[in-house]
Amino acid sequence: MSGNTRNCSSYFDAHQRDGEIKGLFFLDKTRRDTEGKRRTDLHFLDLERGEISDVLSSTPPDVPLGSTVVTCGNHVYTIGGKILRGGILRSLNHVFRFDFKHAERGWRKVSSMLYPRGLPEALAAQGKIYVFKGSRDCFGEVYDISGDSWVPLCVPSIAEYSGVSRPVLLDSSRSRILVHFSGDRYRSLYAYYYNDKSWVCLDPKFPYWSLTVGIVGNVLYVFHEISDEVCSWKAYDVQDKKWLPVKWLTEFSLHQPFTAPVGAPLIHLGNDK
């Protein structure tokens, strides 16, 4: 998973053991440095102990705004972003890496993306990082961590007239990435199978998508906001390709706290939680 550094506080990846999530990595942008500039701090939340770590690292000042953060193995990466030059926000292709095992080395620059990307979507799977959005010149690209190299991502035909919705979603049990496309005429759900580099249309008419989306087993859950006052949960069986009825077991408030981040992620902890 990934998170964008434009949020004041955002979860972007998880630590799993025995199929359950035991901790969450998150970014905190609520503090400022000695010069009064807002800084981005990396923390770890231990769900078993209920403890938040001290600052593991702060992203370096040359990491641009609007970069996306993703972890893979012992490393965390910041990807793309925007910088203000001559009064114009320009996208960058910079990529920085932080090694948890060698924190003393700090953040180091690795091979840049093929194209500049502002506010990209990214996730990691099987030693590679898949990046979408943020560029008009390239649909997506893939970073091979072991080879420190980038290659373009194969493009589905629907991308010619529809854009990728946020977020892209990893379905690791099926070795694929779920991608929702939204255009003037079409809203469709596709799957990218990264082992054989192929695209499959799962549902050509898939109207519901939001920043709060997750998959558990065969069921895709979408928190659908109709308006500021009306919202609902949607559940979709990706195997049988049908929407499922949803029933709440307890009363709940439709109004989230004012300070809650927009589009909070949906996290499956495992073990029916």
Features:
273 residues; Neuraminidase; five-stranded antiparallel beta sheet; 2 domains; 0% helix; 25 strands; single chain; 45% strand; mainly beta
What does this protein look like?
It comes from Gossypium aridum. This is F-box/kelch-repeat protein. This protein has strands spanning 2-4, 9-17, 20-28, 41-46, 51-52, 57-58, 68-72, 75-79, 82-85, 88-91, 95-99, 107-109, 121-125, 128-132, 140-144, 149-152, 163-164, 169-171, 176-182, 187-193, 198-203, 213-216, 219-225, 231-237, 242-244. With 273 residues, the protein is an all-beta fold. Strand 22 (213-216) and strand 23 form a beta hairpin. The chain has two domains: 1-153, Kelch-type beta propeller (Neuraminidase, 6 Propeller); 155-273.
Brief rundown of the structure:
This protein has 273 residues and is mainly beta. The chain has no helices and 25 strands. The protein starts with a strand and ends in a 29-residue tail after the last strand.
List the helices and strands and how they pair.
Layout: E1 2-4, E2 9-17, E3 20-28, E4 41-46, E5 51-52, E6 57-58, E7 68-72, E8 75-79, E9 82-85, E10 88-91, E11 95-99, E12 107-109, E13 121-125, E14 128-132, E15 140-144, E16 149-152, E17 163-164, E18 169-171, E19 176-182, E20 187-193, E21 198-203, E22 213-216, E23 219-225, E24 231-237, E25 242-244
Antiparallel strand pairs: 1-7, 2-3, 3-4, 4-5, 4-6, 7-8, 8-11, 9-10, 11-12, 13-14, 14-15, 15-16, 17-19, 18-19, 19-20, 20-21, 22-23, 23-24, 24-25
